[in-house]
Amino acid sequence: MLGHYLTTKQTPPNGLLVKKLYIYKAEDVAHEYYVAVTFDRQKSSPVLLISGEGGVNVESKADQLHRFWFSPSRGVTPDLLVAVRSRLLFSTAEMPIIEGIIQQLVKLFVEKDAILLELNPLVLTPDGRFVCLDAKFDLDDAARFRQQGLYSLEEPTPDLAEEYEASRHGLVYIRLDGNIGNVVNGAGLAMATNDLINLHGGKSANFLDIGGKATGETLRQAVEMLNRDPRVQGMWINIFGGIVRCDMIAQSIVDAGSAMGGFRMPVVVRLQGTNSDEAQQIVCHCVPP
């Protein structure tokens, strides 16, 4: 597999180049379980999910998932453990091991700002051992500042290289399939900007939010990222100056253009809000061709 492209339902259409392999000894399996901790958005509560049918195609077996809601402040309670045992029918010998796994999962989920912890499959071997054969760990990107140690271990895949670069500069970037790049401050305005582009027959190349407290540096990084993207044939910079000053944004656009030797595409700039008149003057007189 090394050096070859792997194509699955979870990869881009062209697959991903395999650069590393994780090899573990084979285990005899008596039974497979699915165990996960995630959020239930409808109930506004974290939930423990357990199924006696682990392995592939778990999504198609959603009706077999047992759900156990819990409070992050109270953690794993005796009542929750009683409910787990009664529904999954773990033996007296198995239950202390399962209890330890659940305790550690919930502790990790809370302390590391996770949005999903998944053991699939968690297998029971013929000699009574529980072994996790595969796992998934999704972190809340909004907690990046609290989990810098974990994020420092991140190895971006080729299909997420742009998103990874953007996150390093405090930007929220999502690659889309159009040719109009846009730079916006605030997620709501960014979504509205993408909707307007689509409404008028265009297609966005990206969702790029530089944040409500954008600085000259974050804007420069955003503009340079789009200027390097060969798919982008035009750029729309749409900024509302509430906290951020429009004249600072305008000067940052000018500085970025100068540093790059000019923009290689048409650029449309809309600046509204604090110091927008001054910003318009800076853009009109100073943007390089």
From TrEMBL:
Record has S-adenosyl-L-methionine as a keyword: no
One example GO MF annotation: succinate-CoA ligase (ADP-forming) activity
SUPFAM superfamilies referenced in this protein's UniProt entry, alphabetically: Glutathione synthetase ATP-binding domain-like (SSF56059), Succinyl-CoA synthetase domains (SSF52210)
Pathway: Carbohydrate metabolism; tricarboxylic acid cycle; succinate from succinyl-CoA (ligase route): step 1/1
GO terms for biological process, alphabetical: succinyl-CoA metabolic process; tricarboxylic acid cycle
Statement: the UniProt record of this protein carries the keyword ATP-binding: yes
Keywords (A to Z) from UniProt: ATP-binding, Ligase, Nucleotide-binding, Tricarboxylic acid cycle
Domain ATP-citrate synthase/succinyl-CoA ligase C-terminal: 183-279
Domain of life according to the entry: Eukaryota
Domain annotation ATP-grasp fold succinyl-CoA synthetase-type: ranges: 1-123
Any single GO CC term annotated in Swiss-Prot or TrEMBL for this entry: succinate-CoA ligase complex
Cited InterPro entries: ATP-grasp_succ-CoA_synth-type, ATP_grasp_subdomain_1, Succ-CoA_synthase_bsu_CS, SUCC_ACL_C, Succinyl-CoA_synth-like
PANTHER family per the UniProt record, alphabetical: SUCCINATE--COA LIGASE [ADP-FORMING] SUBUNIT BETA, MITOCHONDRIAL (PTHR11815:SF1), SUCCINYL-COA SYNTHETASE BETA CHAIN (PTHR11815)
Protein name: Succinyl-CoA synthetase-like protein
